[in-house]
Amino acid sequence: MRVKTGANAMLLALFAGAGANLQAQQRGGYFVEAGGNAGLVSLNLELAPVGPIHFRGGLGLLYIAPSVPVTGTVVIGRGSSALEIGGGATFVFFGGRDSTHTFGEQFVELLVLGKGLGTITVPTGVLGYRHQQAGGFLFRATFTPWIYHGRVLWWGGISIGRTF
C-alpha cells in the first residue's frame, strides 16, 4: 500500500511541478494544424485551466469530411520547450447515402445524443514537442496515432499559432 501511495505522490508532484513554468506564461492559445488529430487540417482553440493540463477543441477536415478533434494533454517541461502527452477523440461527419439531414443537423445530433447520422468517433493520441512563448509564438510537432477498428493509423501533425 505504501508503494502505491508513494507512486501516486510522485506522479502528482511530476504533473503539478513539471509544467508550472509553462503554465505561468499562458492560459491558452489558438493554432492551425496541418495533419494531426483532425486528419488533414484544422483550426483549434486550447485552454489550460489547471497546471500543466491542456484541453483543445477544433474544426477540421479529414479529406472532404468535416471533423472535430477534442483532446486533453499534459505538458511536461520548463522554459519554452516541453513534451506534450495525451489523448482524445476525433468526430468525423460522413453524410448518409439517403440522408436528408444537413451538416448542422448532424452536428447538433452529435452534441445532444453523442452519435450523428453518418458520424464516427475515432480515438486518437498525442505525443510531441511543444515550443511556446508567453503571449506569443506557439509551435507543435506531434505524433497523433488514430485507432480505428483495432488498427493503428500512424499519423502526425505540425501546428503554428499564438498563446494568450
What is the number of independent domains? 1
Main sheet characteristics:
8 strands, antiparallel, barrel
Strand order of the largest sheet: 1-2-3-4-5-6-7-10
- Catalogue the unreliable spans: 1-20
Question: Can you walk me through this structure?
Answer:
The protein is an alpha+beta fold. It has one domain: Porin, CATH 2.40.160.20. Helices cover 21% and strands 54% of the residues. The strands form two sheets. Strands 1-2-3-4-5-6-7-10 form an eight-stranded antiparallel beta barrel. Strands 8-9 form a two-stranded antiparallel ribbon. A hairpin with a 4-residue loop joins strand 4 (65-76) and strand 5 (81-93). The radius of gyration is 17 Å and the shape is globular. Mean pLDDT is 82; it is low at 1-20.
Q: How are the SSEs ordered, and which strands pair?
A:
Layout: H1 2-18, H2 20-25, E1 28-35, E2 41-50, E3 53-62, E4 65-76, E5 81-93, H3 103-113, E6 119-132, E7 137-143, E8 146-148, E9 151-153, E10 156-163
Antiparallel strand pairs: 1-2, 1-10, 2-3, 3-4, 4-5, 5-6, 6-7, 7-10, 8-9
